[in-house]
Amino acid sequence: MKSTSQKPLEKLTIFSAKGVQMQTFHLTWLAFFFCFFGWFGLAPLMKVIKDDLGLTKEQIGNAMIASVAATVVARVLIGRLCDTWGPRKTYSALLAVCSLPIMLVGLAESYEAFLLFRLAIGVIGASFVITQYHTSVMFDKKIVGTANAVAGGWGNLGGGVTNMVMPLIFAGFIGMGFLPTSAWRLAMIVPGVILLILSVVYYFNTKDTPAGNFDELEGDAVASSPKAKGTLAIAAKDPRTWALFLAYGACFGIEVTFDNVAALYFAENYGASLTTAGILAGTFGFMNLFARAMGGIVADKVGNAFGLKGKGRLLALLLALEGVGIALFAQSGSLVLAVVLMLGFAMFLKMANGATYAIVPFINRKAIGSVSGIVGAGGNVGAVLAGFLFKSSSISYSQAFLYIGLAVGAVAAVVALMSFEKVEAVKEAEVVVA
């Protein structure tokens, strides 16, 4: 008989690091948090980089697209690796490999070189899939939505902190006597070193499942673990996976886009200084401290009362409110009103993030990694599509936000029409990690 410590937890004790489940929980959201420093560390410095490399609006748009395009493929592949190789090895390898382009992006002296580095750095965005996978297998289905949302939210918080901290790191190098053209390059070494250290820490301080690592499991533990073959095909054949793919594109995809463009938007559209624009953009990300978690908590409560049908309707409602909020934000005529409206749509957007991944673990328990990977890739597909709007020379940033608001509303309608509850009849959904 297995001990309680080998089973998924039924309670999330966020101020505890006792047991492999909570230790993994804290390390996985912390790793994801710092991944944002590498992934979007360049975003709040783009005004300086733009002047240094002589970038045009179209080239900045291309760099924005590159930062999320590579993540689309990476998330699907990383999800598959989680199912077969295990999240511990996958995360450690991803952190180590991606730390290199993050530390070396300062070598770029041309637009082309900068674009290639931005593309390579984008792979680190796949870290989200591992975070959601790891919390999915560490917690019981009664609480998994909350656990996923809190881990994802606290990790996403890195997007907001990055917008605030990277300009300060940049200013620190300026204070040491470096010119702006050198300071932004040196600033990116900091997150790269942190990720390299975390890759080692993660490898030696987490387990693939509460019962142990994939290569250690035997007998019943192997049969009941999420490790399986053909999981990508299983996930791809389920229409619910693609409905969540669209939903995540409409919420997280827009979050990533906003993280990329917010500081520049506030600086150029409202004349805010680099530091002020970074702080304002950072408040958007800071809402992940509670908003995404709230989405997961509410989704779990709705799910316990009304099943997956209720979770689906909740997700559709949050997306609809997000779309309305973005459309209104696009029409704001002052900086104060823009910030107020930003906080409004951010609340619904981040709750939708949490609600989406409160449904993901129930699509197919044997293919958690692949479902999570495809849905996570949807977020980046949404970001890529939105990025094309922001690179267009014929469309203003305000117009781009308006079109995005309308598109999010359309996705909300699709999600509202999708039937999620049939998962209850699928045997695989009842398999738990023992």
TrEMBL record:
<feature type="domain" description="Major facilitator superfamily (MFS) profile">
    <location>
        <begin position="24"/>
        <end position="424"/>
    </location>
</feature>
<comment type="similarity">
    <text>Belongs to the major facilitator superfamily. Nitrate/nitrite porter (TC 2.A.1.8) family.</text>
</comment>
<keyword id="KW-0534">Nitrate assimilation</keyword>
<dbReference type="InterPro" id="IPR004737">
    <property type="entry name" value="NO3_transporter_NarK/NarU-like"/>
</dbReference>
<feature type="transmembrane region" description="Helical">
    <location>
        <begin position="242"/>
        <end position="266"/>
    </location>
</feature>
<dbReference type="InterPro" id="IPR036259">
    <property type="entry name" value="MFS_trans_sf"/>
</dbReference>
<feature type="transmembrane region" description="Helical">
    <location>
        <begin position="114"/>
        <end position="133"/>
    </location>
</feature>
<feature type="transmembrane region" description="Helical">
    <location>
        <begin position="154"/>
        <end position="178"/>
    </location>
</feature>
<feature type="transmembrane region" description="Helical">
    <location>
        <begin position="272"/>
        <end position="291"/>
    </location>
</feature>
<dbReference type="Pfam" id="PF07690">
    <property type="entry name" value="MFS_1"/>
</dbReference>
<feature type="transmembrane region" description="Helical">
    <location>
        <begin position="60"/>
        <end position="78"/>
    </location>
</feature>
<keyword id="KW-1133">Transmembrane helix</keyword>
<keyword id="KW-0813">Transport</keyword>
<feature type="transmembrane region" description="Helical">
    <location>
        <begin position="184"/>
        <end position="204"/>
    </location>
</feature>
<feature type="transmembrane region" description="Helical">
    <location>
        <begin position="90"/>
        <end position="108"/>
    </location>
</feature>
<keyword id="KW-0472">Membrane</keyword>
<keyword id="KW-0812">Transmembrane</keyword>
<dbReference type="InterPro" id="IPR044772">
    <property type="entry name" value="NO3_transporter"/>
</dbReference>
<feature type="transmembrane region" description="Helical">
    <location>
        <begin position="367"/>
        <end position="388"/>
    </location>
</feature>
<protein>
    <recommendedName>
        <fullName>Nitrate/nitrite transporter</fullName>
    </recommendedName>
</protein>
<feature type="transmembrane region" description="Helical">
    <location>
        <begin position="312"/>
        <end position="330"/>
    </location>
</feature>
<feature type="transmembrane region" description="Helical">
    <location>
        <begin position="336"/>
        <end position="360"/>
    </location>
</feature>
<feature type="transmembrane region" description="Helical">
    <location>
        <begin position="20"/>
        <end position="40"/>
    </location>
</feature>
<feature type="transmembrane region" description="Helical">
    <location>
        <begin position="400"/>
        <end position="420"/>
    </location>
</feature>
<dbReference type="InterPro" id="IPR011701">
    <property type="entry name" value="MFS"/>
</dbReference>
<keyword id="KW-1003">Cell membrane</keyword>
<dbReference type="InterPro" id="IPR020846">
    <property type="entry name" value="MFS_dom"/>
</dbReference>
